[in-house]
Design brief:
Elements: E1 4-7, H1 9-16, H2 20-35, E2 45-46, E3 53-57, E4 60-67, E5 72-80
Parallel strand pairs: 1-5
Antiparallel strand pairs: 2-3, 3-4, 4-5
């Protein structure tokens, strides 16, 4: 069963400000995540000391939380690799 995707306002703004080609890549990955968040090819990792997971897309990181019971993924942040963990 697929997961619903909810994108926080801050992440949505970041996504809208990106170049079209980068945005398309990230949206594709988010859609793949919604189809199967446990897919090993997505390289999803749980963040140490936080309740979130991270998904890599090139130099970008998508920080998200997942609610397996309700089948919802919450996209918290989308940031460049160097800034996302600060």
């Amino acid at each position: 069963m697929e997961y619903a995707i909810r994108i926080k306002k801050q992440a949505k703004k970041k996504l809208e400000s990106m170049p079209r080609n980068v945005r398309a890549k990230i949206i594709d990955k988010i859609n793949d995540l919604g189809h199967n968040p446990d897919d090993p090819t997505l390289d999803v990792k749980r963040l140490i000391g936080e309740p979130y997971y991270r998904l890599r897309v090139g130099d970008w990181r998508i920080i998200f939380d997942r609610e397996d019971v309700l089948k919802i993924i919450f996209i918290e942040r989308i940031k460049p690799r160097g800034d996302v963990y600060k």
